[in-house]
Design goal:
The chain is α+β, with helices and mostly antiparallel strands. The protein has two domains: 41 residues; 89 residues, K homology (KH) domain (GMP Synthetase, Chain A, domain 3), CATH 3.30.300. The protein contains three helices and six strands; from the N terminus they run E-E-E-H-E-E-H-H-E. A three-stranded antiparallel beta sheet has the order 1-2-3, with no helix packed on it.
Length: 133
C-alpha cells in the first residue's frame, strides 16, 4: 500500500509534513548541532522516533495475539550522529516492559525488535541496539 506524504519548506528552517490519507501534520527543524535552533524534531529525530514507534507497534500486535496488556511499555531511543558523512550512526534503545509480564512473555516480545520493518530498512552500517532497562 502506497502512502503519500507531502513535504513543504515553509521558511525559517522549518519543513511541514502532511500525511496524505489523514491530513495529520508534523513540522521539522534543523537541529542545533547542524546550525539550527532545534525547536522540534529534526528529520533524523523522526528516523529514531520511527524505529521506537515501529518496535512498540510490532510488540503490541504480538501481545494482543497472546491476550497480553502492553499498556505502559516504553522505548527510549538515543540517536548518535556520525560527522563525515553526516548521518545517523547508531540508535541505542532502552526498553521498559510492564512488570506484570513473565520472563518468557518478555523474551517473546523482545524478539519483535528484529521484526521492525523500519530498522530493516536502514543501511547495515546504522547500528540499532535495544536492551531492556
Amino acid at each position: 500500500m502506497a502512502v503519500k506524504i507531502k513535504a513543504q519548506y515553509i521558511g525559517d528552517d522549518t519543513v511541514e509534513l502532511v500525511h496524505g490519507p489523514t491530513g495529520c501534520k508534523i513540522a521539522t527543524d534543523l537541529p542545533e548541532d547542524n546550525g539550527g535552533r532545534g525547536r522540534t524534531f529534526s528529520p533524523t529525530d523522526l528516523l529514531a522516533a520511527s524505529v521506537a514507534s515501529c518496535i512498540l507497534t510490532i510488540m503490541s500486535k504480538a501481545a494482543a495475539k497472546d491476550g497480553l496488556d502492553l499498556a505502559g511499555a516504553s522505548l527510549e531511543v538515543e540517536k548518535e550522529m556520525a560527522a563525515s558523512p553526516r548521518r545517523v550512526a547508531r540508535l541505542i534503545g532502552r526498553l521498559v516492559l510492564p512488570a506484570h509480564l513473565s520472563a518468557a512473555q518478555k523474551e517473546k516480545l523482545k524478539a519483535c525488535i528484529r521484526a521492525c520493518p523500519v530498522s530493516a530498512s536502514l543501511h547495515p552500517e546504522v547500528k540499532v541496539e535495544v536492551a531492556e532497562a
